[in-house]
Amino acid sequence: MTVHRRPRSLRTLTAMALAASLMGLAGCSSAGTPAADAGAASSPRAGGTLRVGIVGGSAKDSLDAHSPVTHPDEARAIQLYDTLASYDVDHKIQMSLADKITPSADAKTWTVHLRDGLKFSNGKPITADDVIFTFQRITDPKNPMAGATALSGLERDAMKAPDPQTIVFPFATAFATFPDIVTQYNAGIVPVGYDPKNPVSSGPFMTESFTPGQQSTFVKNPHYWRAGQPYLDKVTIIDFPDDTARVNALLGGQVDAIDQLPLGQVNVVKANPQLKVLESATGSWLPFTMRVDQAPFNDPKVREAFRLIVDRQQMVEQVLGGHGTVGNDMYAPFDACFPQDVPQRNQDIAKAKELLAEAGKSNLSVDLVTSAAAAGLVEAAQVFAQQAKAAGVTINVKKVDPGEFYGDQYLKWTFSQDFWFTRDYLPQTAASGFSTSPYNETHWDDKQWTDLVNQANATTDQATRCGIIQKAEQIEFDRGGYIIWGFPNSVDAYSSTVSRFTPDKSGIPLTSFTFRNVWLNK
Amino acid sequence: MVAQTKTTAETASSGRPTTENRKRTGGMRRLLLRRSMFGLFTLWVVSLVVFLATQALPGDAAQAILGREATPERLAALRAQLHLGGSLPEQYISWLGHLVTFDLGNSLAGGKPVVQVIAPMLLNSGVLMLGSAVIAIPLAIVIGTWSALKKDTVVDHVTGVVTLVLASLPEFVVGVLLVLLLATGFLHLFPAVFVLIPGEQVWSNPAQLVLPVLTLVLAVSPYIIRIMRATTLEVLESQYVQQARLKGLPERTVIWRHAIPNAIGPVAQVVALQLAWLIGGVVIVEYLFRFPGIGFQLIDAVTNRDLPVVQILVMAIALFYVVVNLLADVVTLAANPKVRTAQ
């Protein structure tokens, strides 16, 4: 099978194959299956190179399994490193390198059992020692990795390997969300002595070349544990800091798939018979963050008023072009425990004015700090400023560049925004809900809530835990610091020669970048 | 004019200049020396401005690199790795010292030596600019002259309108229109973006170069065409051209020996300005086409607060500006006997 590098050759081949099949001469095409059959192909085909254009990327790109810093780094990490467990498209945890993850009764000790016959790309077996090395590397106090804060309760020196396939993880306190934490893409398993400059992989592909800010190529890992996978011989990941260039590359046939299709381009792509749009409802959220410890938001009435100011439907229409669902100031909508019976909060300007008057904050004027750090943030800020006028509130939208947004003031802005991918409730609270959490943008520190969530973390019985989580969510609905107006869909696009991209709830584009599931019909 | 050219040639070959010639070349040398000194001074001022401007950017490299992953622990660890810190004057002097001795240090973002990071980018942008200049300049001079010779004909009017329209369009608009026309929308002739295969050079796949080069050619040519037309017209109406015509010289000789050399002088200045613009223009064009050059690199480095790379790239651009303008001075001087011999 030839590798299509030139854009024209791909288009021409497709066109030729189409013409040939129409004329009943399908056998003549050297490119394999005629493109006309592409959509119908049901069984995986081996071989070929998938070229993917991904948002962002920079000279700071890294292949480090535990420290992805750019968005394409996430895509690369998912090709190179498998985790102990992984999310399926419904955001349910499935076992991956591990075949069993079991808690002790008090959820303070977790035991992980590895599958039989696992191997790294260099042929060495994946053992308990490698897993211990991985988690010690992540939590190294001298050089903590991205996943370190979530694992702050891990007693890293007391991890044990009773046998080469079993690892015991002891925690200082009950830690019900352990399976979620080891499922994150930044917790990939690496071998003892791992060197990110020359990475050995445990995932479906291994590195062939890597040019930061430009592109990277990955070839099939012959020792990968999933039978028959990956189907592709090769994956090329190309960085695209610019939206226009990324879409043009897809339209011109230089790449087979792109993530984050700009909303203005959705209809252009839909109109093209050679391209497909992949749209997934997600639990990603773009909240406004109100600091509950600072005026004017230290008054719960002001927070409620601001939540009543938002016209959520209009937000979804204008900011997301309708590609999203309305939010109800509570996160983790795909959590099995998410409360379904809380009435939807709707825009109510009269009530908002009344609450502001009660709080003595009529004719309020507030700065809203925004940045193009994620798609839709700036637009949401502007729409909110418009909507607030009706309630007599003046919102001064202050746009700063991402460098400043994440600079010294990050997590200290009084009224700002942030973005999150899909998470279940408890892992999300660990990241942003506690006074000790790394990303507590709202400075939320509610005694009653904290007790409830700690209690939920120590509860392994699902039904009991759900009851507690629902109470905690109710507290956030009543007096929390987030305005959660909606959950954007992830919208990607790909060539119809590619099979098996499926909608995925994670918020991570292109079916969570699981290119091992994908094959080419060309 | 002809006589003067001869004298210069004699001077060069004999190596024993006459008093008069020594005066002339000495004047020119002094002028060039003064311009060079001024160029160096400009570079120093630029270095100061660049340094202060980059320091004034909010947030440091550690924050910019980690983004929202910047927990206090990880920030501290990365800052220690990157050796960030020290007072401003200290940092400036140490940086200037390293700059002068070509010890450029390491990129903060990738950890590689700055030279390794920017050398390929400079080469790539150089190829792009050279390609554009080599096509645009002769083409523009020919079209400008032609337009002047055909003054008030259809050719002249069409050239006038087209150049005016192109000159008024920003280069990214031209680029987007070209992509739409030749790559994704109407025709599918050329690749819409540049994808560099590792291990290959930018010129390995020339089809990818067509659209970026064409965009730059269309961006710089109009000004050169218009100034070439204007100066040619002016020269054609001058007394010495009329004199040459009255002497009965063939029109070809009149144009190529008498008119064009005198029209080139002012055009050289515009060409230099356009070349200098090119190095700025490539920033936007490279971003649009995802071309791996200095512009693409510069935007990335600013976002990352990768100061060593930003500073060197801006200094390289400033150096290019200064050198191009110096060359333009030389050409102007060489083309204009009055300026050349001025004391």
Q: In words, what does this structure look like?
A:
The complex is a heterodimer of chains A (522) and B (343). Chain A has a domain at 288-488: Dipeptide-binding Protein, domain 3 (Roll). Chain A has 15 helices and 22 strands. Chain A has helices spanning 7-22, 71-80, 128-138, 178-181, 243-251, 266-270, 300-309, 312-320, 349-358, 377-389, 402-405, 425-432, 447-457, 462-479, 509-513; strands at 49-55, 85-87, 93-95, 98-103, 109-114, 160-163, 166-170, 205-211, 215-220, 234-240, 257-258, 275-280, 288-290, 324-326, 365-370, 394-399, 415-417, 482-483, 486-488, 490-495, 498-499, 519-520. In chain A, the strands form 7 sheets. A 7-stranded mixed sheet of chain A has the order 8-9-10-1-11-20-12, with helices on both faces. Chain A has a 4-stranded antiparallel sheet with strand order 4-5-7-6, covered by helices on one side. Chain A has a 3-stranded antiparallel sheet with strand order 17-13-18, covered by helices on one side. In chain A, helix 8 (312-320) packs antiparallel against helix 10 (377-389). Chain A is globular. Residues 1-41 of chain A have low confidence and may be disordered. Chain B is mostly helical and 343 residues long. Chain B is built from 14 helices and no strands. Chain B has helices at 2-14, 19-56, 61-66, 72-82, 88-100, 114-149, 154-168, 171-184, 207-236, 239-246, 251-289, 294-304, 307-335, 337-340. Chain B starts with a helix and ends with a helix.
